[in-house]
Amino acid sequence: MSIEAVSGDITTERVDAIVNAANSSLLGGGGVDGAIHAAAGPALLAECRALRESTLPDGLPVGDAVATGAGDLPCRWVIHTVGPNRHAGQTDPALLASCFTRSLDVAADLGATSLAFPAVSAGIYGWDADEVARVAVAAVNGYAGRRPDTIRFVLFSERLLSAFRAALAG
Ligand code: AR6
Fold first, then answer.
1. How does residue 1 score in pLDDT terms, banded at 50, 70 and 90?
2. Dihedral through CA 76, CA 71, CA 120, CA 166, nearest 10?
């Protein structure tokens, strides 16, 4: 089992599943969500719309996760999670931890052996890089279920990369 932090664009990761920092609508947005939908193409949005019309009519709750296929992306699945939005007063670290643990639950259900996470909530949703890194690493390290063989945090800035490397170093 390896847990690593690298810099890069998560849309190019050749892993079984990548995690999307989505919003409750699941219908796209900016940041990594926009990048994932742009790279995946319309099949991803169609699957998200189908989820909204079937099992998630009210959207995906904050802290929860759900899987779709990956359209044109090199991975097999996208696991969408919704981070807490600090700008909307969602400041409970347990909600952020839940994004990581629920994504791991979904990855286990899929049988994914490799998984890439972005820094959920560290962008538009306004959480501090160091806090996201601490919460994410603690959630993954403390996860009691079956974890993928490879877990990779894929970070979009040097600031985030150093925050995650520090958290992984303990
Ligand atoms: N690969 C990896 N990381 C990325 C990429 C990429 N291609 N693009 C951006 N990031 P954000 P949030 C980083 O804002 O804070 C969307 O509109 C980015 O630098 O994507 O959870 C959704 O629809 C940052 O470090 O997600 C929601 O409405 C991290 O990904 C809202 O934003 C997360 O930033 C979610 O906000």
1. confident
2. 50
Confidence band of 170 (pLDDT split at 50, 70, 90): confident
Residue 9 CA: which ligand 1 atom is closest? 1
Taking the C-alpha atoms of residue 65 and residue 119, their distance in angstroms, rounded to an integer, is: 15
Give dist(CA 139, CA 136) in Å, integer.
5
Catalytic residues: 33
Structural Rg of the chain based on CA atoms: 14
3-state SS, residue 105 = helix
Class of domain 2-169: alpha beta
Asked if 164 contacts 153 with a C-beta cutoff of 8 angstroms, the reply is yes
User: Which candidate, 142, 116, 155, places its Cα nearest to that of 20?
Assistant: 116
CA gap 84, 121 in Å, rounded:
6
Ligand 1 pocket, residues with Cβ under 6 angstroms: 9-11, 21-23, 29-33, 35, 83, 118-125, 154, 156-157, 160
**pTM of the predicted model as reported, rounded to 2 decimal places:** 0.99
Closest-CA residue, ligand 1 atom 7, reads: 9
